[in-house]
Amino acid sequence: MTIQGFAYIALVFLLVLGAAFPLGRYLAAIFEGRVRFLRPLETGIYRLAGVDERRAMGWQSYAVALLLLSVIHFALLYAILRLQFYLPMNPQHIAGMSPRLAFNTAASFATNTNWQAYAPEAQISDGAQAYGLAVHMFISAAAGIAAAAAMMRAFTGNAARLGNFYVDLTRITLYLLLPGALIAAVVLVLAGVPQSFSGFITAHTLQGGTQTIAIGPVAMQEAIKELGTNGGGFFNANSAHPFENPNGWTNLFENWLLLVIGFALPIAFGHMVKDKAQGRALMAAMAIILALGCIGAYAAEAHGNPLQIAAGVAPGGNWEGKEMRFGIAPSTTFNVSATGTSTGAVDSFTDSYTPLGGAVPLFLMQLGEVTPGGVGSGFYTIIVFALFSVFIAGLMVGRTPEYLGKKVQAKEIKLAMLGVLILTLFILAGAGFSLVTKSGLASLANAGPHGLTEMLYGWTSATENNGSAFAGLSADTPLLDYGLGAAMLFGRFAFMIPVLAIAGSLAAKPRLAASAGTFPTTGPLFIGLLIGVIIILGGLQFLPADTLGPLAEHVLLQAGKIF
Amino acid sequence: MSNAETISLFDAGIMRRAGLDALAKLNPVTLMRNPVIFVTEIVSALVTATGIEALVTHRPAEFPLVIAAWLWLTVIFATFAEAVAEGRGRARAETLRRARSDTMAKLLTNPPNRALYKPTAAPDLRQGDIVLVEMGDIIPSDGEIIEGVASVNESAVTGESAPVVREAGGDRSAVTGGTQLVSDWLVIRITADAGNTFLDRMISLVEGAERRKTPNEIALNILLAGLTLVFLIAVVTLVGFGAYSGTSFSIPVLAALLVCLIPTTIGGLLSAIGIAGMDRLVRFNVVATSGRAVEAAGDVDALLLDKTGTITFGNRMASAFYPVNGVQERDLAQACAMASLGDETPEGRSILALARDKYSLTPERPADATIIPFSANTRMSGIDSAGQAYRKGAVDSVLKALNTQGDDAFAQAAARIGRAGSTPLAVALNDKLLGLIELKDIVKPGIKERFAALRAMGIRTVMVTGDNRVTAAAIAAEAGVDDYIAEATPQNKLDYIRKVQEEGRLVAMCGDGTNDAPALAQADVGVAMQTGTQAAREAGNMVDLDSDPTKLIEIVEIGKQLLITRGALTTFSIANDISKYFAILPAIFVSTYPQLGVFNIMHLRSPESAILSAVIFNALIIVVLVPLALKGVKFRAIGAAALLKRNLLIYGLGGLIAPFAGIKLIDMLLGLI
Fold first, then answer.
1. Rounded to 5 degrees, what angle do the CA atoms A501, A423, B599 make?
2. B451 interfaces chain A, CB cutoff of 8 Å
3. In a mutagenesis test of the B interface, which of A399, A434, A436, A495 is the best target, namely the one with the most B β-carbons within 10 Å?
4. Over the stretch B622-631, which tens digit does the pLDDT of each residue have?
5. pTM for this structure?
């Protein structure tokens, strides 16, 4: 462990949190329709699509619109992947995907998961990457942010309206994701990331052989991959690939990109409810858990593997699976940030981490992706935890629970509990079942607790819509293609729809005035409580399984046993 | 009344009965209402079956049977907690039931004629029947007086033995079944069917028989059921993870893990907390018509309090004499005293007391005196003696009677008295204006501090008075209320409540008259006085048997206490899980991965002992917390932020730490056996 390592973590937080404040204010302005620099284009889109931008929706219409869009895009993407051989921009003549892999991939991109059961360079064409996947990286991210905006509106008025989904989607895409990705792509190109539709380059090596070098529209996909917490890399090696992530500066930039919207959303919330301290409290809870994760993973990796230390091959920690050009702290911080944000991106291989270093990303996902979570989804999930917090501990001030003046009652708790149950069920039942089937066991690359972690990580990543893989797991099998595909769909929509219902229910309630007797939802006490509730309600149910995975592996490693 | 008696927390009779009830409550059909304990019961049965199977097949059966026994005890402790709470309520109900004797009613067959009646058993009376009640009779059912005036002994309901006057019309027209007429006669229209009278409802409420879950209780139950399901998934899927890792778990071990993780502590105590909250109200002689009202009381953030009797002593007292027209103060005092000789009201007595204290004047009533009583028409009273007419009364009435305007000094003095929040009374001898008496509203000592405490809790106090604005403002300032409604009418009370509610606040008020009924119904918590009309009692959601409007403050505190207790035990219960993991997880995995023993940070003796200790702790903690559940966590008016900090520290942090100590202790004790 070095001072520089910790300083790097501090730098990432400084840059992200510093930018989150102005970006949060800008987001609130977008949600409230105050950003209008592309107004003619915006109104043109509404006119073309026949959208009445003044019509605010109730939660049902909002959810139906969101669901409908996702279904259409899922079907479209499925068709593109199956038919990519016949579609334009396929210079490598890559064949169409198998039905189950196309199902898995379409589910993955429609849910903002970006789990990649396929090998991108070999199984997907440039065209499918560009007009299939990249488009979805925008749409699914915008849909998530729109759901977050709907949740914010639950607290701003007394009318049971959550805004217009189509308007939110258009504004978020036009004013946030497109310009953001464009700027980010230019920065990445300047830093050396390729952007081209020319297909593969064939190089003649010094030895006289030929080598095919895959390039393509990398910079554009990379930009939205991080900004929209997607994670689907252009290359199988993801952000560890030198074309996706050439140097330390791009690594820092990409790390910043994938965190910044997630942290800006609570700030936007503070602006929307006209109580900035509320937004700051949520942001602080997110940041503290993530910071602990970053420090924990870095400490574990920098401490290294006791066997390597004994063999004298661990200079400054565990380097296995990490890029020398980044270093340990930037690698662990990137992976922890990516799993804390439901970005499937990796710049080093979690599979090769020490057991505890690898447990951090796993646990952050299990907590429900709230640190700060996927764009939009992280925000509405932490609101669910905030509701649980006031519900459990709020009674202790002698009033029935309320959050921002909205009473938390049976309906909200029922819906929130339903969401938690779905996530728990898919992660634990999915992984537990896969581990006792022949097919599941065949997907594992390692035995013992390490293998268990691979499987648990896969189901966790899919259900929580993260998309990162522990590596080692061969995911393109019938069981995992269909199983994880279902987990992604349920993890996204069976959670998001109850959440929108909660928003609708809260929106319809009168906003009660705060008084000296009201439960304070700002300040260190609430932040501590929220963190406690996230860990107890979001994490405790996974502890028995985690004990048999990374924790068992850790104690065995200390005893000199590896897998 | 015996309601006010405290019943010992461990009353032997209640305990015995509760023990039996606890067993009766094991019936799974009724237990299903409590999902956490229901799951615990099923799991207990499962483990028992495993134990018996082991016994029959001659395999080691001690461990499963001991675990089964403690799991059953967990269930029984939970049902016992509920039974104890119900038992305490039932003990109070018994005393109420004694009041309800089966009386014979005199059912009037031809109502205007009181001579024609048919003896009818009280339970056969229907709503709308007209009955006659005469001196010595027990009033057969709840009703509204339509004719007559009588004094009624209501001690059966209120515990107050002094009879109260009840009469047709006005605000004192309601009578309660089970109370006794001690004078005269009444004709009453029955307002409640048998079994649905005030007394019946009170009995069923305090017994907890008709207890429906309150909204917050329902929501909490959903959370607890959800957590139970979450942990059920975690434990069942562990079989798969275990199979992969080469571990097979026995049913008792999985059952122990499950029961320790699901929130049995709060699940077991939840309904006891609710029943005890109602019980606490009853002990204050307040009956809530629903548990929902008690919860709402905790949420109230504006209290509408009647000035008279709540903020000030019910009666105004003479505090000074203001002579005019060159009259000596002593002479004025003498005239005032004379004018008050026939005045038996507290105001009149206070004038005599002031004259005696200030000038040692103790006039006797002359033999020839004619008392001129106060009438609403003249608004004056006094005495005629030896050709002299002493009069005192409302300023404008006296001036009008004397046909004078009074001079400037008089007008100024009257205005000054009014500005100070007091009431001026003009005093005259024959046709000469002598001066004024100041009748002062005395604010109760300590009330200002209570209002300050309420403010710290975030509760605004609003004084309601029929006084004019000037008077109201002066008293409001003296008592330290946040706002006041002067010249209150039923309509402007109602308007005020609506306005406050539109700001997103919950309002509590108390009232007794029929014209209070709309406001009582509109308020989130409406406390009707037992002495009030039937309409008021129907409109409110609580009835105060002592008819003491000050109680509103205590009612709010009881509501808060109920919610705090529920929250504290929920937090405690959920926080307990972390330490239970440290006890059980190493124990169940250590056979597969002996290295996981490092997580046995409590150094429990053996895996079996660790699991058993956690299960025993989990069962015993319910019993340990029963007194707290019944007595409630004390409410402190220190503001929400400070209160939260305090309770989180005690029940949150305490909940994290306590089981470590408890489980370790049990493990050590088990080692001694």
1. 135
2. no
3. A399
4. 999 999 999 9
5. 0.86
